[in-house]
Specification:
Elements: H1 5-15, E1 21-27, H2 34-41, E2 54-55, H3 62-65, H4 76-79, E3 84-86, H5 88-97, H6 115-127, E4 134-137, E5 139-141, E6 156-158, E7 166-173, E8 177-185
Antiparallel strand pairs: 1-2, 1-8, 3-4, 4-7, 5-6, 7-8
Length: 187
């Protein structure tokens, strides 16, 4: 499956319409891709394909003081150990869980589409990065097998990267691009 600009942007805009989200893709320029993640957090790089970016904090006055806001400016050695690799199925579920605060699949009930239709949108989003991409998150679910996120588990954990009380995200890394999908929740 591949994604074109129109289908990818439609999926992103629809899935994250009610989220406080940051969705951005930048070029992968470093072997240590966390450096590319930091560039995305700082909004230092454009989308290499010119595709849409969702930045709900773009107009926030806090950005004047800190261009990375709501992300905290951390060094790569802080960020890297807080992003655990997960499998593609978990990444797909996580994209859906990020559509609202709380990082849960329960929010799918607020969409008019069926879960299968929503999963097709998540697959469209991930298709941009190809079959060889890797997936990394700051989210954990206690009791999940290593490399997975079991959304039937109740206990949510996360390693915060922002000023908010909860932020959950997914980083997708390909040979040429790094994508960030983040949701912020100020409980």
């Amino acid at each position: 499956m591949s994604a074109d600009q129109t289908s990818w942007e439609a999926a992103v805009r629809h899935l994250y319409r009610d989220a406080t989200a940051y969705i951005a893709t930048g070029p992968r320029r470093h072997e240590d891709w966390t450096l590319d993640v930091l560039a995305l957090m700082a909004r230092d790089v454009p989308d290499p394909r010119g595709w849409a970016r969702v930045d709900d904090a773009e107009e926030n006055p806090e950005r004047v003081e800190s261009p990375t806001w709501p992300f905290v400016a951390h060094p790569p050695e802080y960020v890297a150990p807080r992003l655990d690799e997960i499998d593609r199925d978990s990444a797909e579920n996580l994209l859906l869980a990020l559509t609202e605060g709380g990082c849960t699949l329960a929010n799918l009930q607020y969409f008019t589409e069926s879960p299968d239709e929503l999963r097709a949108m998540a697959r469209t989003v991930l298709a941009r990065y190809g079959d060889e991409a890797t997936y990394h998150t700051n989210v954990s679910k206690t009791g999940s097998a290593p490399g997975t996120l079991d959304f039937t588990r109740k206990a949510l954990g996360y390693n915060p990267m922002s000023v908010f009380t909860e932020d959950c995200g997914l980083v997708v890394v390909s040979d040429t691009e790094v994508g960030m999908f983040w949701n912020f929740n100020d409980l």
